[in-house]
Design brief:
The complex is a heterodimer of chains A (154) and B (417). Chain A is α+β, with helices and mostly antiparallel strands and 154 residues long. Chain A has one helix spanning 12-37; strands at 2-3, 6-7, 49-54, 62-66, 71-76, 79-84, 95-96, 100-102, 109-111, 116-118, 127-132, 137-145. In chain A, a hairpin with a 4-residue loop joins strand 11 (127-132) and strand 12 (137-145). The radius of gyration of chain A is 28 Å and the shape is elongated. Classes of the chains: A alpha+beta (154), B mainly alpha (417).
Chain lengths: 154, 417
Amino acid sequence: MKIADVTVKMDRRAFFWLGCAAIASATVGFLVSTFRFLVPNVLYEPPSRFAIGLSSAFPPDSITFLEDRRLFVFNSPDGFYAISAVCTHLGCTVKRSATGFDCPCHGSRFDANGRVSRGPAPAPLAWYALSLSPRDELVIDLDRQVAPDFRLRA
Amino acid sequence: MRTPIAHRVTGWLTSTWKSAWRIGWPRTDKDRAAVMISSFFLHIHSARVSRHSLKATYTFGLGLISAVLLGILTLTGLALMLNYVPYPTEAYRSMKDLQFVVTYGVVLRNLHRWSAHAMVFTVFLHMCRVFWTGSYKTPRQFNWVVGVALLLLTLGLSFTGYLLPWDQLAFWAITVGSNIAAYAPVVGGRLKFLLLAGHVIGPMTLLRFYVLHCVILPLAILALLALHVWRVRKDGLSGAPMTLDAVSETAGAFPASTKTWGLMAMTRRPSASVEARDVTDEVFAWPHLLYRELLVALGVVIVMHLVALAFAAPLEEMADPTRTPNPAKAPWYFLGLQELVHYSALIGGVLVPTLLVAALLLVPYVDTDPSGSGVWFARERRVANTVFTVAVILLALLTVIGTFFRGPSWAWVWPWK
């Protein structure tokens, strides 16, 4: 075969395999792209960092359950802290109990600091970082987990 | 006396009819065989079947019942699709409309839901029957594998199906289900993201499950079911015992027409079936098999209709992401799994199911001894049957515990208290 001034030595069999390789790579490319098509690029989800209200809205020594955010917000004498109400087992919403938190789905129990005391939960409840906005609002950052000694002095 | 014009009309009508149905109503044994193999819809049956496999107490018609239920589910499902909007809150409103507004809606929904429950049950029983009669043995090993895939597809269809009403059960089932997927090693997190089409359950999640339930999984189950039935057709109906006494012909007696038998002998049979084949023990599928199939189908349709008229399909409150019901229970067929998951999500949700499926798939390739096929609880199969039965009993036990003995926070309760 002669292409322009370059002579390419290729018999029919080699050309056949080249064709097969081309079709195979095109197929793989198509499949990979189609798979990638299924992975969303833009998520229309609530932001992970948001204000939950003025710090004065959380009275001293109180525990507030933010239902739609699935969060417990504590105002203790040491300061503010927030614990997730999402069970680390399979994502059900935990409820407050006398000793801490109970999960209704598979019976995991957590102590007052969210540590697992019983049941199948593999990890303690998440603690999220709190901060104060210039307008004195409590701001929570779901992308930033903190240790259970976290307190925000208001 | 027939006038020539009337004669021509009947002749035209007859030839028109015969263009579609060439054999007509079969009146001879030759036609009874020919009608089965010349019809697209009937040729999934062999022309003749052994009395043994026709016995109600041998197969209990479980495969057939499952197929009939799939038929009911397809028809009712198609109807339901026309009165359903796959979008959160709209989906729930569709359910309420089906229940209270749409004519016949409540019956169709009940039929669909209860048939789905029934199908999970009969497909599982069908698998038990095949195991206990050793029917997965050569040459049917691969068809057992296809059967296991069909069982998994049935469960997948149930799972994706009960998410669609967008009630509390639906929402928390997706929550728990997708979180179980997240426990899978390496790909878990990405798998969950792909299932939910995001980090949280939303409209795209519902759409994904809707397409899975209405298009992808039904197409898969139809393709595999065709393969399943085709293999049954090629390997012969479930294995007759090797040593079968010649049974004297009683019902539907047919003369030893060499022509008919010669016709049938054209199909190449695997050796096991050839040995088992006892021509005097066989009857024509038309009418013996078709008649029974029709009766079973009729029975299933009647029973499911009665159930649908008597019992309302469950529908909980509208999905509320802020409030987990206590206890949050899956449908009964997943409660055994949920009971396991309550001990450990990784072991109960990923490890045990994976190992169970792997064990099921390997059954016909590990147990290669061809003996003991075609009879219930064959003596030679005592070990295999015991192991399988123990597994079935354990699963049933876990399911019963999950269903009746678990209360709020999955704590142990006595159902009679």
